[in-house]
């Protein structure tokens, strides 16, 4: 759907304006001279910042917030059809579109847009690309799924050539994007409350890749099992990256420093291109960095310049983020909520000097815990102790079919290192008894488990 953002659309209302992506899009439009307002269920640092910038924010979703002067209403996939503001917009005949439609239209205004997709690593890789394009002086517009200290948040409004965006596959949102370069990091079973199975997911990624123009690029993981299905029939340029020379881009001569950060040489089709030094731990970030370098080169940024930009990347909020210490133990917070992400995060922790690893895990959504239960059971072998908090429901309701105790029991079939705690207070009490100097405490999950770590540090 094409939106006339330059002419007929003057007033835009965001339902759920405090969300990470929504607040960013609101700021982009506001800085382009469009009158922006919106609502959220509760006040937050994001809504407070928007109000400080001059954007009106209503707390609570109410039909009366939708006035006749509004030209466009934007909502997220999480907004239900019975939302009073969405119903009011429909009754008044006001055009209402999902967030991804707006983002896709904004992206179309830029000559060199890069959309980063994949089951894991989207925020990290799009943040790496942000640092690369900033370092190279491209003045990019940026919208990512986490707070990047370099830009002071998750959004930056720049020039009209480069656009770096994180692209989520949930509810097929990324099918609204038509980027110059599409990055596909990996494809695994996820969001099974929407997708039927892995074949459905791969089909969606194929459609996303098909949106790239013939003169554009798809940068894709060359070792992903779904590679052939995704790239078959594409007319655009294909660039692969991977862990060995089976892909176009691959690393050689990998080493790690005491903090787990990797150094490696980046090769392209057998030729040395540049040396890369990362300031974040985890071998999975070697592949993220290669994807960022490959994507940057499709837009004219040299690998050497990209590697220099990567030196500025020190991480993004909730991605192996150092928070402080408790009784001499290092407290790390990480957003990992899928078994593959759990494995990668704990493998990264193993490369950091430590005595024991205590993982405080909060499963995210009942559907994910149930469908991936067996995989979760095999994901925590690199932790010395796993303490389970109750499941974070997010958009779902508890059906009684799955609980965190079930997840703990499944882990104990394999690693025998898990204990169910339930409440945050119980989790905290256990950590206080267990943690010793030299340990690593990782609060892990996409919910609010980070609060436990913050409270430990304060105590």
- Shape type: globular
Order of strands in the sheet with the most strands? 8-7-9-6-10-11-12
Largest β-sheet summary: 7 strands, mixed
Proportion of residues in helical segments = 25-40%
Provide key terms for this protein.
21 strands; 32% helix; alpha/beta; seven-stranded mixed beta sheet; 459 residues; globular
General description of the model:
The structure is a single chain. The chain starts with 10 loop residues before the first strand and ends with a helix. Helices cover 32% and strands 26% of the residues. Strand 16 (321-326) and strand 17 form a beta hairpin. The model has no long low-confidence stretch (mean pLDDT 93). The strands form four sheets. Strands 8-7-9-6-10-11-12 form a seven-stranded mixed beta sheet, sandwiched between helices. The chain has 15 helices and 21 strands. It is α/β, with parallel strands linked by helices. The chain has helices at residues 20-31, 45-53, 84-92, 99-107, 122-135, 198-210, 227-231, 284-298, 303-310, 339-350, 366-371, 373-377, 404-412, 424-434, 450-458; strands spanning 11-15, 35-40, 56-59, 72-75, 95-98, 112-117, 141-148, 153-156, 162-166, 181-184, 217-221, 237-241, 249-256, 261-268, 271-281, 321-326, 329-334, 357-361, 385-389, 418-422, 440-444. It is globular.
